[in-house]
Amino acid sequence: MLSGPFTTGLEASVDFLAQALLEDRHLGQLHELLSSRWHTYHSAHAAVKLLEQHGAELTPEEEQHLISTLGEAELIDALLAKIPSQSNAQSQTFNIHLQMIVSAAHRIRQGLEDFQPEEIAAALTDVDRTAIAPLVLKMAVVQAGSEVKNLLQNQKAWSKDAEQKMSRLVTGQGEALQAKRRLALAESRLRGRGSAFKQTAKKAIARLLSGAENAFLSQLLATWLTIARQARRENAVTEEYSGRIEQMEEQLMASRANQLLSVRAVMQRRALGLDSALVREVFDFFRTQVSDRKAEEVLSQEVRKVQAKLKTFKTSHAANVKQIMMRVGAACDAGLLMTSIKAWESSLSESKRQFELRGKVEAVETALKKRREAQNDAAKKIIIHLSRASDVGLSHMVVKSWAKYGKGATQDSGMADLLNAQLGRLSDFGIRNARTAFSTLNKAGKQLDLFLLQRTFSAWQLDNKLGKLLRRHQALMESKKEQLRSVNGMFRSFAHELEGTTSKSPSGAKSSVRRMLSKTEGSVLLPNIHAKQLGSDRQGLAKTQKTHASAGPPAGDLPSWLSEMWPKASDDSSTMASSSSPAGTCSLPHRPAGTVTSAYPAEDERLFAPQPRALAPPPLALPQERGTSGLAPLRQVPAWQS
Question: Does the predicted model carry a pTM greater than 0.85?
C-alpha cells in the first residue's frame, strides 16, 4: 500500500495534469462516457453508501475489501450481515421519504399536465421543508444532466445537417456569383460588339444608299429566291409530316384493332371455360343417373327373387291346407286331434317364415332408404302385396309408406331449393360477367379515346413547334440574306471606287501601288472590274442569266447554305452575273481558287471564287474579326460583312 502523503501528491499531480492538458471537449467526452456506463463497481459502491446512510458502519479498508475482492453473492451476504438491528425505524423513515418523493412527483406531474404553476410551486415548497430535499435535488441534477446530454446530441446532429445544407447553399451562391460575373462580362462584350456593328452598319447603309438600279434588281431577285425557298421548305415539311400523320393514324387503327381482338379473345376464353364447366356438370349428372339405374336394377332383381319365394310358399301352403281339410273330413277324433296338432305346427312354422320374410322385407326397405330413391309402381305393388299377408304387415306398410312419402317430399323440397339456389348463382354469375364485360369494354373505349386525344395533342404540339422553328429560322435566314446583300453592295461600291482611282492614275502609279501592296494573311483579291463589256446592262444581264441557268452553279464554288438558294429549273432560275457581265450589274465575283488570304479561307474561297482576269487590282487587307452575335456564328463571316 502507498503512504498517505505519496497518494495525496499523486492525486494533486493527476489533477494538475488533467487541468493543464485536458480541454472542455475532452471533459465533455469523459462525462458522456461515464454517464452512459454503470457496471459492478458502481452498483457495489452505491449499495455500500446506502447502508452507511442507514446506520451501517464500515471502515475504508472494509469498504475496499467488499467492493474489490468479493463477488456478487458474497457481497450481498456481507452487506446483509452489516445491517444493524435498529434499522427497522430507519427503514420506516426511508419508506416515508420514498412515499413523500412519489407524492411530490405525482403532484408536480399533475400540475404540469393541468398547466397549474401554483400547484407545482406548492409541491416544491413542501419538498424543501422536508428531509428529502437533497434527494430530490440529486434526482433533479441527474435528470437535468440526461436532458442536457440529449440536447447536446440533438444540437450536434442539427449542426451537422445545417452544415451540410449551408455548404450546398454556399457552393450554389459562389456558382451564382461566378455566373453573374460571366454574364456581366458577356453583356459588356456584346455591348462593345454592338457598337462596332452599329458603326459598320451605318457605313454599309451609307454605301447602299449610293447604289443604282442594280441594287433594286438584286433585292428583287433575293426576295424572289426567299419566297421560292420558303415554298419549297413548306412543301417538303408538308410531304414529310403528312406521311407521319398517316402512319400515326394507321398505327392508331391497328392498335384499336389489336385491342378489340384481345378483348374478343378474352371473352372467347371465358365462354370456352363456361362451356367446359357445363359439359362437366352434364357428364357428372349422366354418370349419377347411370349408377342410380344400376342400383335400381339390382334392387328389382332382389324383389323378384323374394316374390318368387312368396309364390312357392303360397302354393305349398294351399296344398297343405287342402290335405288338412280332406283329412279332417274323413278321419276320426284322433285323426282330428293329430290334424289339429299338425295344423298348429304348420301355422307356427308359417308364422316363423312370415317373421323371416318380414325381416327380409325390412332389409330391402333399409337398402332402399339408404339410396334415397323413390320406388316405382311395380315395387310398390310388390311391397303392398307382401304387406297384405298379415295385419302387422299392413300396418307396417302404412307407416312405412307415410314415412317415405314425407321423406320424399322433404327431399323434393330440398332439391328444389338447391336447384333454385344454383340457378340464382348462375344468374348472378352471368349478371356479374355481363357487368364486368361492359365495364371492361367501357374502360377500353375510354382508354382508346384518351389515346386518340393524346395523339391529337402530340400532333398539334409537334405542328406548333415546327411552326415556331420555321418562323425562327426564317428570320435568321432573312438576316443572313440581308448581310449577303450588304456585302454585295459594299463590294460593288468598292469596285466602283477602285475603278475611278485606277482610271485617273497612270500605269506607273498602278505598278508602284501593286508593288507597295503585298498579299498577307487577312487580305483578299478583289474582282477585276476592267473585264470586256458585253453590251448594254439589260442585254448582258439577260445573257448571263441564261448562261448560268443552263450551266447551273459552279461545282465547289458556293457554300452549302448558298447552293440551296441557287435555282434548279430554267424557268425559275436567275443568278448574279459573273465578272464578265457589264459594269453596274449585280454580280458575284469569281477568281481562281487558292488566292484567298483572309482569316476564313475556306468560306471566302467558296463565296467569292473569281475567274481569271487579264488585269487584277491590287489586294486589299481586310479585318480578321469574327462575327459573334447572340445567335452564334452559323457562318464564319467577318464582322464588317454583318
Answer: no
